[in-house]
């Protein structure tokens, strides 16, 4: 997920032919977004060798379904096609919750090292 002042970009890596967008999850996400977000871009990332199997554009939600009474919200979807080699070259080794030196299994630290966590210092 990437966000700007007025747009939100959601990435969905998928290997199946059809992947419906989770309306309930998107509604919950929209509730937590600042009112300045007016554009939601949903990007489906698929492997190049599966492009012929990828049947069609996914179910496109209307803005009113996601954020009632919102006249300014737009939702678009895109498809980003990558080779398997490209996807593998972008992988991260190790745990995703790696908090660095001194972190426990959850990725957090008990010390007050001044590290940033969710925009504030520990």
Account of the 3D structure:
- The two termini are 24 Å apart.
- The chain has a domain at 1-38 and 47-79.
- The chain has three helices and six strands.
- It has 122 residues and is of the alpha/beta class.
- The chain has helices at 23-32, 63-66, 84-89, and strands at residues 2-3, 7-13, 39-47, 74-82, 116-117, 120-121.
- It is 16% helix and 25% strand.
- Strands 1-2-3-4 form a four-stranded mixed β-sheet. A two-stranded antiparallel sheet has the order 5-6.
- Helix 2 (63-66) links the parallel strand 3 (39-47) and strand 4 (74-82).
- Residues 97-122 are annotated as: Disordered.
Helix/strand layout:
Blueprint: E1 2-3, E2 7-13, H1 23-32, E3 39-47, H2 63-66, E4 74-82, H3 84-89, E5 116-117, E6 120-121
Parallel strand pairs: 2-3, 3-4
Antiparallel strand pairs: 1-2, 5-6
Describe the largest sheet.
4 strands, mixed
Chain oligomer state: single chain
| Secondary-structure class | alpha/beta
Specify the overall morphology.
globular
- Uncertain spans, ≥5 residues at pLDDT below 50? 107-122
The counted number of beta strands is: 6
Widest sheet: strand order? 1-2-3-4
Region (Disordered): 97-122
Features:
alpha/beta, 3 helices, four-stranded mixed sheet, disordered C terminus, 122 residues
What is the gist of this entry?
Residues 97-122 are annotated as: Disordered. The protein has 122 residues and is of the alpha/beta class.
């Amino acid at each position: 997920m990437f966000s700007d002042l007025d747009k939100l970009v959601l990435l969905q890596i998928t290997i199946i032919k059809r992947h419906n967008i989770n309306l309930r999850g998107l509604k919950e996400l929209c509730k937590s977004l600042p009112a300045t977000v007016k554009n939601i871009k949903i990007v489906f990332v698929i492997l190049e060798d599966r492009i012929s199997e990828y049947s069609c554009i996914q179910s496109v939600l209307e803005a009113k379904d996601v954020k009632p009474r919102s006249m300014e919200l737009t939702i678009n979807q895109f498809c980003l096609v990558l080779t398997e080699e490209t996807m593998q070259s972008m992988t991260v080794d190790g745990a995703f919750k790696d908090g660095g030196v001194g972190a426990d299994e959850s990725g957090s630290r008990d010390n007050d090292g001044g590290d940033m966590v969710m925009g504030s210092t520990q």
